[in-house]
What we know:
mainly beta, 4-stranded antiparallel β-sheet, single chain, elongated, 3 helices, 11-stranded mixed β-sheet
Amino acid sequence: MRLFFFSVLTILNISACTNGNKEAADKRNLTCYIRVLEGEGRIRAEATMSTVGEATGAINDTTVHPVEVPGGMKYQGTNMALMPNQGLTYFKEFPGEYREKHQFAWEDAQKQRVEFVVQMNDIKNFGFGSKTISNSKPATFTWESRGLEKGESLVLLWENPTQHLTVPMEVYIQGNYPKIDFPAGKMKELSPGTWTLYVVRKKLAKAQIGPVNARAVMEFYSKTDTLTVTN
Length: 231
């Protein structure tokens, strides 16, 4: 299975707001990343606290400056380590299964505990109702869990090792029902043959916690399934 990871290091610049004034520079940004690999049974969490423009104090400086957190960061109540050779990004990786709630915690300037809690959604028992599908007909993809919420997307990652092909299908449709209707034109992207499919459910969450502008990117990687595509 080829994994498409979106590390906190690649999304750090997203957390730099365009308000490059001195007031924004005095605040903190917390950027978190959570990845659950259902097939491998592993969880990884990352967190970076940063300032914007604090190093120079320039009004229009929007440069992100990671900072160390006095007392460190905690994930699910346990200490996170600093990532080797990656500056001031904290991380924790361990064997584990999907869990709905994820908590990051640290101490503020008054040594009071502060928490950022986010909720991740999973995806279970997904499929097209058959192990054989046609690339010339529309298809309905369903799963067990919540429908897509605001800030969420699904990426269906198809791999055909025989033909050395990888076809991603990303969907942002929000709705109450856990299903997606794919038109025949979209299914035509899959050539006849045997394909391996796994699904990535991505979610973005944001919160203002005192002076800290917190955001988290969560990714749930499902187990794989094998389907046959025909004309």
